[in-house]
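Proteins fold reproducibly. Next comes a concrete instance:

***
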Amino acid sequence: MPKMPSWKPPKNIVKALDDGDGFWEDERWSPIMLTLMSGTEYEGREIAVAWQIEFDPSGDEFEKANAKLEEMDLEPDGYGWGEYIQKVIRKMNPALAKRLHATDCETDTCVLWVESEGDCRALLEATWKLIFEG
């Protein structure tokens, strides 16, 4: 398994989001893109910062993990990965599972987001392990 990158969000998130027109991205977690966003609304609530992970599960680095999803009768696409990650998080951390938003998955892309830095770090680290431990 490749070594996980260090967790290094911006020290001043508000400034980073202002400088990036409401977005800040970190590609160090490739194939996962970490994005912070301002101006998000969810079920009528304003979210100060949305912490999102996104990836396309069709890359070569997903071959072993995708085979595992297929063994579990899940499509190894964005929807299947979203379902798989939610299932694993429900077992590992039921409290986090209740705060996890998986409303933006598509066939080509798995998109999950949370509303806090701590939740994002836990989600990102769990997803990294699922991809690379296969």
About this structure: The beta strands are 23-26, 33-37, 40-42, 45-47, 50-55, 110-114. The mean pLDDT is 94. The first helix runs from residue 13 to 19.
